[in-house]
Amino acid sequence: MSTIAEVSLPGAEFALHETLEAHPDVEFEIERMVAHETDRVMPFVWATSERVDRETLDEAMADDPSVDNVTRLAAYDGEWFYRMEWVTDIRVVLHVLLEQGATVLNASGRDDEWKLRILFPDRDSLSATYDYCTEEALTLTVNRIHELDGEHRDEYGLTETQHETLVAAVEAGYFDIPQKATLDELADEIGITHQALSERLHRGHKTLIENALIIGRMGR
């Protein structure tokens, strides 16, 4: 039976650790991640910060030995979208993707910790990953495990930013009919641009649909 595991890793044992150490306010959110050859991972990454500007973040990632070929694809107010390659501190991800045939549903990193939500083909592949980390002296903490048995679940893999934004939208009446708050009004309330809010809501909706509907059907 397929299994979803919510795990965490110390920032010091994962990619972008030097950037996060220098700028703990930055939150990284993985949009999509694929193994690139056998020694690299290519993620598409959203970076969000209220204190760090784009130039400072670009310089930090350019100096970070764990990443290579960083390309900024889009920029909004306090949010930037990158394509990059992770080249070191990625043994866990390579093991999960290449050896266990698992899928990283979402991942986010902030301060000194990364949180990953991983879909494993079965419970044995999760156990094998845990054993691998133990043998390699890597710190993998399993926080929650969900068996895909078709039952309703109350956790949908949202990042803290996505969760707060969706809750704020509901409380402001953005989703009400008739609508009590426009996108511009909600953006002003949160303190971000119209475009940044639209992108954030879009990613939150996508995460909810993937984890609440698509993945939930896989267990039936």
Could you walk me through the main structural features you see in this protein, from its secondary elements to its overall organization?
With 220 residues, the protein is of the alpha+beta class. It has 7 helices and 8 strands; from the N terminus they run E-H-E-E-H-E-E-H-E-E-H-E-H-H-H. The protein has an 8-stranded antiparallel β-sheet with strand order 4-5-3-2-6-7-1-8, with helices on both faces. The longest helix has 25 residues, at 194-218. The chain starts with a strand and ends with a helix. The relative contact order is 0.18.
Write a brief structural summary:
The chain is an alpha+beta fold.
Write the layout of secondary structure elements.
Blueprint: E1 3-10, H1 17-22, E2 27-36, E3 40-48, H2 54-62, E4 67-76, E5 79-86, H3 91-99, E6 103-110, E7 113-120, H4 123-135, E8 141-147, H5 160-172, H6 183-190, H7 194-218
Antiparallel strand pairs: 1-7, 1-8, 2-3, 2-6, 3-5, 4-5, 6-7
Helix pairs in contact: 5-7, 6-7
Q: Taking Cα atoms only, what radius of gyration do you get, to the nearest Å?
A: 18 Å
How many distinct beta strands? 8
Shape: globular
Task: Report the structural category.
Answer: alpha+beta
Instruction: Provide a count of the helices.
Output: 7
Main sheet, how many strands, which sense, barrel?
8 strands, antiparallel
Helix-strand sequence: EHEEHEEHEEHEHHH
Which consecutive residue ranges, at least 5 long each, have pLDDT under 50? 150-154, 216-220
The averaged pLDDT comes out at 88
The helix content is 25-40%
Query: β content, as a range?
Result: 25-35%
> What strand line-up does the widest sheet have?
4-5-3-2-6-7-1-8
The termini sit apart by: 10 Å
